Amino acid sequence: MNLLPRPVSYVDGGRLCEYRGWETVLVDGPPGGYRLLSSDDGVLIEAHDTAGEMNALQTLRQLLGADAFRAAGEKPSFIPACEIVDHPRFQWRGVMLDVARHFLPKREVLRYVELLSAHKLNVLHLHLTDDQGWRFEVKQYPKLTEVGSWREDSRFGDRRSGGMAGRPHGGFYTQADLREIVEYARARHIIVIPEIDIPGHSQAAIAAYPELGVHGGGVWTDWGVNERVLNTDESTVDFYRNVFDELMDVFPCEIIGLGGDEAPGHDGELVRAIARHIVRNGRRPYGWDEILGSGPLPVGTIVASWRGVEGGVTALREGHDVVMCPEQHVYLDYRQSESLDEPIPVGTVTTLEDVYAWDPVPAELTGDEPGRLLGAQANIWTEHLDSARRVDYAAFPRLAAFAEVVWSPAEKDPGFVQRLAEHHLPRLDALGVEYRPLNGPHPWQRLPGVPGFPR
Questions:
Q1: Contact 307/330 with Cβ under 8 angstroms?
Q2: Calpha distance 68→65 (Å, rounded)
Q3: Is 130 one of the annotated active-site residues of the chain?
Q4: Residue 203: enclosing H or E segment and its boundaries?
Q5: Helical segments of 254-307, H only
Q6: Out of 114, 171, 218, 383, which could bridge 223 as a Cys pair, Cβ 3.0 to 4.6 Å?
Q7: Which whole-number Å values give the CA distances from 99 to 35, 150, 154, 189, 208, in the listed order?
Q8: Are 416 and 53 in contact (CB under 8 A)?
Q9: Minimal CA–CA distance to 381: which of 405, 340, 346?
């Protein structure tokens, strides 16, 4: 369950019980699933695994009311008498957080881990490098952060406007910071997947080590597709093997992101070489759907389908596992209405209702494809989100709708928005999330006069 239960079964006892803690028993069942029974005798949780227990405890927290989401203060002591049987629809319930375009301090990443956990999301994909900044400390190559972690200025609004922010921007995570994030997430049954983007979106690395690039140049201050990409010299391949070795040492997860998107004129050999290196180290490469055109990919490669669902369908038919994240449905930096009050309106209109109406399973799938549809992911790109407040505005409450899509059965609940307004927005208030109100932005959430690029 996410906002309020829409699980396999839910029986409300019609009375309140005093909350005196819980007891957990591990039983057979679907991964991540649980049964929660609340009665005068207390709360009994039967879970398939420890992830299921965590999911049950989040449900219990929801049943206790919005004040249970506050860090301190008087806690509620009564819960409804009920029985809930529930489990997730998809194995991969993820969020991509772009910390390369605009850096989020470690404390904000840890806060987002908490928010993902509260919504029963279990994958955090960190986009750590791009043209505009390198955020991962590589001890063998210190200039990646000394030079590549900051830029002199940033485009403010759409690139066609010519406007600039007029201030430097930067920051990076030490390896100790990232190990802390990984462990903090692990304790909440969230996998952190790192991404080093190659061969495009690499201008920050090229600024630090010009010999890596086809062309030179400093850390990019603009947005969009950059034609300056990595070269395919063997020395460049060796450089990135070393980078990915340090990355895999910090991140113990099975899956390692290598990007592969928007690289004009690149033949894909670097992507294939690094993918093979990842596999030789016992891990699985994970890349955007352009990697399908880079040549034969190692067995075990996972494809993120962002340019619609077609790439994902092709990948499934070729035997690859797939995560659906099409920009038309789950790019949460895209504008939320046609209103002129939307700050820096980019992309297509993607309303709360649009996100909730989406089904991650494409209609053209037959079920006989050799690859597996692992689940779905919402992507939060931060070209125009320069603070945690702006990320909150873009992500919520649409991320709550996405969380219910990837957890609940495919059938939609016509009462979803009402449930959200009555029950979940007070929880976000208690958590301090500066979400977009359902009727449009607060005055202080607007950015009048800053041009975007609506489609």
A1: no
A2: 6
A3: yes
A4: helix 203-208
A5: 269-280
A6: 383
A7: 37, 12, 14, 21, 19
A8: no
A9: 346
Separation of alpha carbons 160 and 143, rounded Å: 31
| CA distances from residue 67 to 2, 44, 97, 188, 434 in whole angstroms, order as listed | 17, 22, 27, 20, 17
**Angle formed by the axes of helices 269-280 and 234-250, nearest 10°:** 40
Contacts of 249 (CB under 8 A, 6+ apart): none
Contact 241, 198 (CB under 8 A): no
* H helix or E strand, kind and range, residue 249: helix 234-250
* Separation CA 376–CA 323 (nearest Å): 5
Contacts of 120 (CB under 8 A, 6+ apart): 1, 2, 55, 58, 88, 93, 403, 407
Residue with tokens 């976000």, as numbered in its chain: 428
The 8-class DSSP code of residue 215 comes to S
The pLDDT tens digits for 84-116 are 999 999 999 999 999 999 999 999 999 999 999
Q: Active site residue: 195, 197, 262, 434, which one?
A: 262
Alpha carbon distances (Å) from 417 to 4, 79, 352, 358, 421: 11, 23, 9, 15, 6
Q: Helices 106-118 and 175-186: crossing angle, nearest 10°? A: 10
pLDDT on residue 287: 98
Alpha-carbon span 79 to 45, nearest angstrom: 14
In whole angstroms, give the CA distance from residue 106 to residue 180. Answer: 9
**Each residue of 230-270: pLDDT tens digit?**
999 999 999 999 999 999 999 999 999 999 999 987 779 99
Catalytic residue among 53, 86, 98, 130: 130
262 catalytically annotated? yes
Nearest to 72 by CA among 376, 430, 440, 435: 430
CB 223 within 8 A of CB 101: yes
State the CB neighbour count (10 A cutoff) for residue 37.
19
Candidates 91, 85, 105, 80; CA nearest to 18 is 80
DSSP string, 175-197: HHHHHHHHHHHHTTT-EEEEEEE
Beta bridge partners of 93: 376
Q: Show the low-confidence residues of the chain (pLDDT under 70).
A: 1-9
Task: Specify the pLDDT at position 161.
Answer: 78
Question: Which position among 48, 201, 320, 424 bears the catalytic label?
Answer: 201
In 3-state terms, what secondary structure has residue 266? coil
pTM for the model: 0.97
Q: What are phi and psi of 317, to 5 degrees?
A: -70, -25
